[in-house]
Write a structure and sequence with these properties.
466 residues; alpha+beta; Cytochrome p450; 5-stranded mixed sheet; 12 strands; 11% strand; globular; binds protoporphyrin IX containing FE
């Protein structure tokens, strides 16, 4: 990291004292890895909606005010690149994703984004609805009333199969275990906080990361080779990547196609899986909300599997998903790096600063959200949603780098929730504690064990008891 020359006249956001040697930094690093959310909470309480600090020679600034966020992601977006936790090829996401859409910047990113966009257009993703519900029904056919399942495990595999089938026309069922393991290794390696051990030390975490990379490469290059050999245009994202030509008529290298493909696999499943995890977790604790959801599903679907056409009428289902992503946003924060000196609001941010958008805290700020800790889907009724302050709700980010998969994800989350909740209710055990594990995405720590109850059987029991 570079040491920053900060003049005393600059208005740098306040924060804890510099931690520029290991002795001083260590307790803080330990505290962050023990309790990231609690530590951040404490800082926001102490310093307000913005704070910054210097650690081991690098400056970090955290922002949670919607106006500041708008400047970072939109109006002054050209003064930032993706943060080091993305771009670091040794310890960041780039180690696994390479130079794909999530990690690239500048003109190169712009060209790649334009290339990938048609695969995500509203018209095209409508064709994916059937695949989404088919895979969900297949999963539900394997569920047994009264058993305890790990919802996180189920959602991860389901969303992975869906992204592989829709964007790559690949049935990943055979490899789903390996990709799933690779995913958790990547989350640990790239999202597990500050890692002081260099990558050449073969720690268990490092060995898992190396295996993840090997497995991902084998699977993804296998998919690319097979498609190249077939030579067919399947009209999916993979064909778009393979058939793309630049102005000189050159196509993408296999390495670049691999990077974009791995990026989509990784960005496109774990996020939606966590949105669903937290939704089931919240529903299990709010029987009133669950009852309203069931009422809508029963009225609109009457036990049928939902189709794309039903989504229009599944308004409450949509409100539930949106409110769940407010309280427990799957991407709980995201980072940039200032590529020049920049002024955000009244603050001076020197070139090189790592700038973080603290989504989780913006989503819980009482200035923008009444009773912010409460789970109230009605906040997203059309009338109330229209009044939400700009950039106070940013589950998909914003500006030019807004999530390319946001419509895909919203469609998927609503269809999967509607299909599952029509047939099953998911219950937590009495006094079961579920902790947050904030890695790249916000995960339930140690999975999400829940007991499943078939809804027919509940009805039968009520009838029998009368
Ligand atoms: C609920 C589900 C999802 C959430 C909460 C989510 C959230 C986000 C956020 C916050 C960003 C912006 C990060 C930043 O600015 O640094 C992002 C970017 C991205 N997301 Fe998603 N995402 C979801 C689903 C998906 C899906 C389904 C796909 C693909 C199928 C996808 C692909 C991507 C890609 C490729 C980017 C990088 C876009 C760019 O920089 O041009 N995401 N996502």
């Amino acid at each position: 990291m570079t040491t920053l020359a900060v003049s005393s006249t600059n208005n740098i956001p306040r924060g804890p004292k510099p931690m520029n040697n290991l002795l001083v930094a260590m307790p803080y690093i330990m505290q962050m890895s023990r309790d990231m959310m609690g530590t951040m909470d404490g800082m926001f309480k102490q310093y307000g909606d913005t704070f910054s600090f210097e650690i081991m020679g690098g400056r970090v600034a955290m922002f949670s005010h919607p106006d500041h966020i708008q400047e970072i992601v939109l109006t002054q977006a050209n003064k930032f690149h993706k943060g080091m936790d993305y771009k670091d090829e040794k310890a960041g996401l780039a180690r696994f994703m390479g130079n794909g859409l999530v990690t690239s910047d500048g003109e190169f990113w712009k060209r790649q984004r334009k290339l990938a966009s048609p695969a995500m257009h509203a018209k095209r993703i409508q064709n994916y609805a059937g695949t989404m519900t088919d895979f969900t029904v297949r999963m539900l056919d394997g569920w047994r009333d009264g058993t305890r399942i790990d919802v996180a495990f189920e959602m991860m595999r389901l969303t992975l199969k869906i992204v592989a089938q829709t964007l790559f026309h690949v049935d990943i069922t055979q490899d789903v275990g390996r990709v799933d393991e690779a995913m958790s290794a990547i989350q640990e390696a790239a999202g597990g906080g500050i890692n002081l051990v260099p990558a050449w030390v073969p720690t268990p975490r490092e060995l898992k990361a190396r295996k993840a990379l090997r497995d991902l490469n084998e699977i993804v290059y296998g998919i690319i080779n097979q498609r190249r050999a077939g030579g067919e245009d399947m009209g999916d994202l993979l064909s778009m990547l393979l058939l793309a030509r630049d102005d000189d008529g050159n196509g993408m290298t296999d390495k670049q196609v691999r990077d974009e493909a791995v990026t989509m696999f990784l960005a496109g499943h774990e996020t939606t899986a966590n949105a669903l995890n937290w939704t089931f977790y919240l529903l299990a604790q709010h029987p009133d909300v669950l009852a309203k959801l069931h009422a809508e599903l029963d009225t609109v679907l009457g036990g049928r599997v939902p189709t794309l056409a039903d989504l229009e009428q599944l308004k409450y289902t949509e409100m539930v998903v949106k409110e769940s992503m407010r309280l427990l946003p799957p991407v709980w924060g995201f980072g940039r790096q200032a590529i020049e000196d920049v002024r955000i609001g009244e603050y001076d941010i020197p070139k090189g600063t790592s700038v973080s958008v603290a989504t989780y805290w913006t989503h819980r700020d009482p200035r923008w959200w009444e009773n912010p800790e409460a789970f109230e889907p009605e906040r997203f009724s059309p009338e109330r949603e229209a009044k939400i302050r700009k950039y106070a709700y940013i589950p998909f980010g914003g500006g030019p780098r807004i999530c390319i998969g946001n419509s895909f994800a919203m469609m998927e989350a609503r269809l999967l929730l509607a299909t599952i909740a029509s047939r099953y209710t998911l219950h937590l055990a009495p006094r079961q504690k579920v902790e947050m594990l904030p890695l790249i995405t916000l995960n339930p720590k140690g999975g999400l064990p829940m007991t499943i109850r078939a809804r027919e059987s509940i009805r039968e029991r009520v009838v029998a008891a009368r």
